[in-house]
Amino acid sequence: MEAPFCEHKEVKVCYDNRRIILHGGSRLKTILEAKGVTKVYRTGRVDVWALRGIDLNVSQGEFVAIMGPSGCGKSTLLHILGGLTPPSKGEVWLDGVNIGALSDAERTRTRRNKIGFVFQRFNLLPTLSALGNLEIARYIHKNGAGGNGSESSRDLLKILGLENKLRSKPIEMSGGEQQRVALARAVINRPAILLADEPTGNLDSENSQTVLHMLQDLNTRFNQTIILITHNPEVAAVAHRLVEMRDGKIHDRVQDVTYHAAEESFL
User: What is the domain extent for residue 18?
Assistant: First the structure.
């Protein structure tokens, strides 16, 4: 996995949880935007409001944590942002494309080409090795086209500290190792954005810290845009920006931080 050439620029920014406001004249590309996203489930004769008009902007290279208690709607929001579930109202724009306006086939292609997913459950193919799980993801991404990407798969597994597990199957790996393979699988095709839903939920504290460090490293080294869902403040603390949710809404809170923006040109 080759790293993009990045020229980093330190800028002062102001977050209000929904958008990024830059000071000093610099601009960051918006990679994901949610506009008035609402989700209502019908249970018998009762409407259950999971999301109530969510507005959210995520810039290229950001690492955003969405935090809230169980039932606040954060996982529903992630599924909508990833094109897995349609909103009842509102729009989601990914890299300049309104994914709600796409056909099922186009939405599937967009997920395959632009979005990486990591879930609490590892979802590895049990009969394949760590390297095999990455290669099948690459094969699907290329829609069955040929090409040998095994070297970049090996390099990525080495970056994630799995150089000794290339030929190991999931049953031969610890939970932390399996989650790192799942993480490698999610980013092997250089997605525009990585969506991680409670990625440390099934891990002990030591393995949780390892996975979080790997997420930070991918963000820093490859300018990988990440949205992380969690209920744990310690997990959320690794991100650039914290978005707090309550009862299907974003809880506004202004936060001033220093953000290392990256101006990219891919070789």
Answer: 5-123+190-265
